[in-house]
Amino acid sequence: MSFLSQTLARVKPSPTIAVTTRAAELKAEGRDIISLGAGEPDFDTPQNIKDAAIRAINEGKTKYTAVDGIPALKQAICAKFARENDLTYTPAQVTVGTGGKQVLYNALMATLNAGDEVIIPAPYWVSYPDMVLLAGGTPVIITGTLENQFKITPEQLEAAITPNTKWFMFNSPSNPTGAGYSWDELKALTDVLLRHPQVWVLSDDMYEHLAFDDFKFCSPAQVEPALYDRTLTVNGVSKAYAMTGWRIGYAAGPVALIKAMAKVQSQSTSNPSSISQYAAVEALNGPQDYLESNKALFQGRRDLVVAALNTCPGITCPVPEGAFYVYPDIAGCIGKTSAGGAVIANDEAFVTALLNETGVAVVFGAAFGLSPNFRISYATSEAELTEACARIKTFCEGLN
């Protein structure tokens, strides 16, 4: 009998963390590595937020808090939803966790039973299917296409729903593609969900503030108020406020679900860091002007990367509507051999050879549920992005 849980055999480690770890190891060995694997802004947490954390420490706010968030933070989250999303919640409808990942996990653990299905559009964030599996559910994958900017259609959603469907997990703008659903596109999906009252919506809005050009962010419960009572709207401070290491995510939804999620959290981590919570209050209530300047910076990086990748033989890179990722298609590279002698049988072989031969670390598309592709996070300097894209182009030109 194996000592380890059979549940653990259902899941795999995070490929994005694995790529970042491998890149760090090679860098420590003295290799010239450009790591484009991590989804993490490269600039520092704003000073006003850091100052709020320091004040909290100096004022002794370092004790246990309420399991799922201090009142001040819950109130700030309610104000944020009203201000930015036209969604009205009370503090009793809000939960705070140790990052958005824990919030998602709590929701699935609190609701899934054996046989319950969760519909997940692909390409998806690597953790979605594995969290469903850990919670005892069954992921049901529906795949967007390059021709449709990696977005799914209402017809695909309708066909995937069964009597066992419990959740539809939705992420826009998307990790890994940056694809964003317009109001009309999202309304077409919510129209399908209205016909299936057993299906709840788990909306991951983490990249809300990174919406480019004319794309306007919108959230399912905002687009279709009739879904308000069966939607959990998830967000956090990690991406918009450059607070990845502070580990604060949050969500709002029906009181009964929020209470159930708090029960899960009470027996796992208990409360998030008290200091991080006070910093998050400042993030949500304080000045917001830098969000626009940060967005403009990311949009410039997006344009640089998309233009450069589309000059690479064998690569097609669509223009994403948001987030800080691109998800180029490499169908034209598959089956070829690299200058270093590696056979490019699939996208994992492509990124492995790319790292070994050029020192550029990216994540292969199969990890996100759609091949042949790879993901670049352009949350780094323009100088590094320019050099990385030049290396990728040289690598592609060397394929034969």
From TrEMBL:
<dbReference type="InterPro" id="IPR015424">
    <property type="entry name" value="PyrdxlP-dep_Trfase"/>
</dbReference>
<keyword id="KW-0032">Aminotransferase</keyword>
<dbReference type="InterPro" id="IPR015422">
    <property type="entry name" value="PyrdxlP-dep_Trfase_small"/>
</dbReference>
<keyword id="KW-0808">Transferase</keyword>
<dbReference type="InterPro" id="IPR050596">
    <property type="entry name" value="AspAT/PAT-like"/>
</dbReference>
<comment type="subunit">
    <text>Homodimer.</text>
</comment>
<dbReference type="GO" id="GO:0030170">
    <property type="term" value="F:pyridoxal phosphate binding"/>
</dbReference>
<protein>
    <recommendedName>
        <fullName>Aminotransferase</fullName>
        <ecNumber>2.6.1.-</ecNumber>
    </recommendedName>
</protein>
<dbReference type="GO" id="GO:0006520">
    <property type="term" value="P:amino acid metabolic process"/>
</dbReference>
<dbReference type="InterPro" id="IPR004839">
    <property type="entry name" value="Aminotransferase_I/II_large"/>
</dbReference>
<dbReference type="InterPro" id="IPR015421">
    <property type="entry name" value="PyrdxlP-dep_Trfase_major"/>
</dbReference>
<dbReference type="Pfam" id="PF00155">
    <property type="entry name" value="Aminotran_1_2"/>
</dbReference>
<feature type="domain" description="Aminotransferase class I/classII large">
    <location>
        <begin position="32"/>
        <end position="392"/>
    </location>
</feature>
<dbReference type="GO" id="GO:0004069">
    <property type="term" value="F:L-aspartate:2-oxoglutarate aminotransferase activity"/>
</dbReference>
<keyword id="KW-0663">Pyridoxal phosphate</keyword>
<comment type="similarity">
    <text>Belongs to the class-I pyridoxal-phosphate-dependent aminotransferase family.</text>
</comment>
<dbReference type="InterPro" id="IPR004838">
    <property type="entry name" value="NHTrfase_class1_PyrdxlP-BS"/>
</dbReference>
